[in-house]
Design goal:
Blueprint (H helix, E strand, L loop, with lengths): L6 E2 L2 E2 L11 E4 L6 E4 L14 E6 L2 E6 L1 E2 L2 E2 L2 H15 L15 H14 L1 H11 L3 E5 L7 H10 L11 E5 L5 E5 L7 H19 L16 E2 L6 H18 L2 E8 L4 H8 L3 H16 L7 E6 L8 E5 L3 H10 L8 H23 L5 H14 L9 H5 L8 E5 L17 E7 L4 E8 L7 H21 L3
Parallel strand pairs: 5-9, 9-10, 14-16, 16-17
Antiparallel strand pairs: 1-2, 3-4, 5-6, 6-12, 7-8, 10-11, 13-18, 14-15, 17-18
Helix pairs in contact: 2-3, 8-9, 8-10, 8-13, 9-10
């Protein structure tokens, strides 16, 4: 409740989603899952929610409480617990029960129920994991670049994950952190903002050299391993889950790029439009050049958090205006004057900002139509728009070729798989040090190539910024 309210311009934003960052888990059930959170603010409930954490390493699950006698453990005390976990888990690989959360949901629900029937302790163990304040995974990888970090977050080590948790912090052996988040709990901007808040706090402590010292080397908090009672059915399900996970993961290509030659400040100084608009236009041009001058129906996340418990709306950013600019920029005869290209660029930029504003003000169409489709599903009626060719071609029904989202002016960037098999995921941050973006594509599609699109985006960002720097228009 002391965390400052976020704003979009002058508009305060709902902070409800932050409550699902802690003590929150998606519980599998047949047909429909359940999102359960035991987190409460002080004003909601004077009784403190669970304060234990779960740490997963080498397939083992451990837990310890972060508080002793209502006092938060100091960093050296926590480090001592983590050291105990590393020593215990090094002895042999664990069961890797977390891999079960990668199963198809109905199958996972059945196995979870089966485990609860085997032994009452298993039910207690599930509650321990699902109600924990936070969940961490300690991995043995030593990534050398942000592409490798992104791969660890999305495509590796299912035995040491719990994909149902709203957030799992994965810490690599060389001290880098990536998170795996469950999207139904909140939007990607929430862990991004919290990550920035944590990093800024760490930086401030290091500047004044004020890390708390070890207050009690003999504190009574102990590390306990969470041990499940299981049978051959569970063991076989874990192996099946691991195979299914890697079958999907091996089909995803990821490329992350840090463009230091183009920053938020560069865009503001030389281009003089919103940096997000600049990136979106460059993305459209990059795709247009790579894919035979074809436009791509595009989804950009627009936040509706200025409304009560608001989430998002789709900004459909592949507009006729941006297509006209892309055609001018790729005109093979090179007969279009630079001043005309600049005019088309500004028209496209203005239209993008209008689309984003409309979506942020709940004036989009996609969430409304999604609601109608859910009503149709629940009542057993057909959603006739679902089979309309223009709806599908425009991106409706999960057919957006470019699925994009901006994490803002942050130090953190996110990423996820493409929305459709012949599409891309493009996720980016607009920093003072660089523009960083993550591109994903499916290897099974011969029409897409994450590396090629990433290279095209990078060169387009630099070329467009340079053209504005040198221009006298």
């Amino acid at each position: 409740e002391r965390y400052p309210i976020s704003y979009m311009g002058k508009h305060p934003l709902t902070m409800h989603q932050l409550k699902h960052f802690f003590n929150t888990c998606r519980i599998p059930h047949k047909e429909c899952d359940e999102l359960v959170s035991s987190f409460r603010t002080v004003s909601e409930d004077v009784q403190t929610p669970p304060t234990h954490v779960v740490v997963i390493r080498n397939g083992h699950l451990f837990t310890f409480d972060l508080y002793e006698s209502k006092k938060l453990l100091t960093p050296p005390e926590i480090l001592q617990k983590l050291d105990d976990i590393v020593k215990q888990s090094n002895q042999s690989p664990g069961l890797g029960l977390g891999a079960l959360t990668a199963l198809p949901r109905d199958e996972w629900a059945e196995i979870r129920d089966h485990l609860c029937e085997i032994n009452e302790q298993n039910k207690i163990n599930f509650q321990m994991i699902e109600q924990a304040l936070l969940v961490y995974a300690l991995d043995d990888d030593n990534p050398e670049n942000i592409t490798e970090v992104a791969c660890i977050g999305m495509l590796k080590n299912p035995q040491s994950r719990w994909f149902d948790r709203s957030n799992v912090y994965i810490v690599t052996q060389n001290g880098l952190i990536v998170a795996n988040d469950e999207h139904s709990a909140y939007e990607g901007i929430i862990p991004t903002q919290i990550g920035d808040h944590i990093q800024n706090h760490i930086d401030s402590l290091e500047k004044i050299n004020s890390w708390p010292i070890l207050s009690d080397p003999y504190n009574k908090i102990i590390v306990r391993e969470i041990l499940f009672i299981y049978d051959s059915r569970v063991f076989d399900a874990i192996n099946r889950a691991i195979k299914l996970f890697y079958h999907s993961a091996d089909n995803i290509e990821i490329k992350a790029i840090n463009v230091t030659q183009c920053t938020k400040e560069d865009i503001k100084q030389y281009v003089r439009i919103h940096p997000d608009t600049f990136f979106q236009l460059c993305l459209q041009l990059a795709y247009f050049k790579l894919h035979e001058h074809k436009p791509a129906p595009t989804y950009e996340t627009a936040s509706t958090r200025r409304f009560y418990r608001g989430r998002t709306e789709t900004a459909r950013t592949c507009t006729p205006e941006v297509v006209a600019w892309c055609r001018a920029m790729t005109n093979s005869n090179n007969q279009i004057p630079e001043i005309e290209k600049r005019k088309l660029f500004l028209i496209a930029a203005n239209r993008h900002q209008e689309v984003m504003t409309e979506a942020s003000e709940n004036q989009g169409c996609d969430r409304h139509l999604f609601g109608l489709s859910m009503i149709a599903y629940i009542t057993g009626k057909p959603f006739e728009l679902a089979n309309d060719p223009s709806w599908i071609k425009s991106g409706g029904g999960g057919n957006f070729i470019l699925s994009t989202s901006c994490s803002g002016f942050t130090i953190t960037v996110g990423g996820t798989s493409p929305m459709c098999l012949n599409g891309y995921g493009v996720f980016y941050r607009l920093g003072s040090d660089a523009v960083t973006f993550v591109v994903t594509a499916y290897r099974s599609c011969s029409d897409t190539n994450a590396q090629a699109l990433a290279d095209s985006i990078e060169s387009t960002l630099i070329d467009m910024k340079t053209s504005f720097m040198k221009s006298n228009l």
